[in-house]
Amino acid sequence: LVSVSLLWSYMVNIQIFLILLIYLIINILYSVKLKQIPIIDVIVIATGFVLRLFVGGYAIDEMITMWIIVLTFILSLFIALAKRKEDMQLLVDGKETRKSVGFYDLNILNISLKFLSVLIVVIYFLFTLSPDAIIKFHDNIFITTIFVILGLYRYLYLTLIKHYSGDPTKIFLTDKALQVIITSWLVTFYYIARIL
Description:
Layout: H1 2-12, H2 14-32, H3 40-59, H4 66-92, H5 106-129, H6 131-136, H7 145-161, H8 168-174, H9 176-195
Helix pairs in contact: 1-2, 2-3, 3-4, 4-5, 5-7, 7-9
């Protein structure tokens, strides 16, 4: 399957082929060694998301802006650290988890999640004010920042105060308030970008 994907990508678009080749090499290195090295493990995960973003951009012939690259990397880092937080809680509870988790500290993870939340909001807000976003979407697209703030702080509330699972996927699939916030962001973004 991997060989077929690489061959197909080589025939369709050389940039996609090169990115997939880099992605494959990084995944092999991650599986063999990098997942055991704290901090490097989450940086590799975030880099993988950015590489997939590039593949998608080349596949649909859409230019990927620096805003979306940076936001994807920071958001992926946030998600990976949130997953490490959940793994750390499993370790504290005496359950088996990945080896690198023992090198993390719960307080540092909590501080990192708070810091990355603020960074995500700032980057997203600056993106909505950028000429690229205003031209492509609308000058009122900055209004959607409120949902980004609400979503991130709802997530932080659930994980830091209520001590729910740190895994964002589990929380997104089970928390009704977060689902309403995300749906509201999507509807508002679509309305401002396409209807106004």
